[in-house]
Write a structure and sequence with these properties.
single chain, Immunoglobulin-like, 5-stranded mixed beta sheet
Length: 376
Amino acid sequence: MRLCEVARGVWDAGDGEDVVPMTDRDQRRQARRTVALSLALLLVFSVAAMAEEDCGWPPDLWVPPHGTVLSDGRRAVQRVSGDVCQGEQVTIEVTIANPSCGDAGPFDVVLTYGETGRVIDVVRIDGIDGCDYITFTVLWDTTGALTGLHDVSVCADTGDEIVELNEGNNCLVIARDLMIRPNTPYIVAEKLLVDMTGGTVQPGDSLRYEVTIWNYGCADMEDNPGHEFVDELPGGMSPTGQITATSGVAQVMGNSIVWDGSIPAGGSVTIKYRADLDPDLEPETVLCNQGVVYWDSTGDGTHDERTLTDDPTTPEPGDPTCLTVDEPVTGPLPLSGTIDAPTLSEWGMIATIVGFGVALGVQWSRRQRKALEIRG
């Protein structure tokens, strides 16, 4: 439309003058003006034809990463609203771009979640012009969705309707570890070992354990009949009776640590307790154990689920917390702290001072001998 207006303006620039008899000079001037107007119109309509004509390249559908600068200077949006309880709504924003000059016809965009690619939604796109993009929003009702941690992915043209320059950039993981929390308790626990003595683990050392229990579910973990946490210590290790908990009641029962209490939805509790290693443990003895959290997943007041503690210092999930007893230390104890050897510059300074002292000593000795010779 604007090209048509430009052409109209070119023609209008030659109108509006009264018709009067022209001299030869005027006729030559008018001829030059007509040629100039014709060339201008030719240029205008050539540009218009090029704009309307296909550039000859296939389109290139692309799911750009979040924050990518687009053709108009704006940025791509790939955003998921965040963790929810099962049944709540997740808002997903998606940008699909076509960086090629070729236009793309209609195609589907599929949003999925989880390792098996469960479908969230299929969005039909009417097409994207060359060098353009679209951004749209999907509202995901998570009723019936799998609970737990999930990645969310977007793929354009899953039906291969569009012949593209590059088929390898049509998919993107736009969110990782989105949590759909169950409408029940969801328990995770870890157990960390701290050697109070420091250094290697020796027979007779004092240890401290720190157990943290999280409730990631959307329902409270209730204080039901029976203990909610039990940690039976292995042989060769004895509890000292020093025990604390940020909520509930923790105590020692025999060679076990027990805790009773509730954890609200989204809350946690930390239990700390100490134990001593037997002084006669053999070197290379390995002691491992795990605490157990007992909880109710159905809301009927009975413990029907159990969760083992995990050692957070290892990459393996759900593994016990272990220690290995080293050879006992014999002989005099080493000095505390460290002694650093002198640096090269410090050695040079030491050598200078020593040399200066030796020179003074030699000079003093010569003077003494000379004085004795004079007296003699």
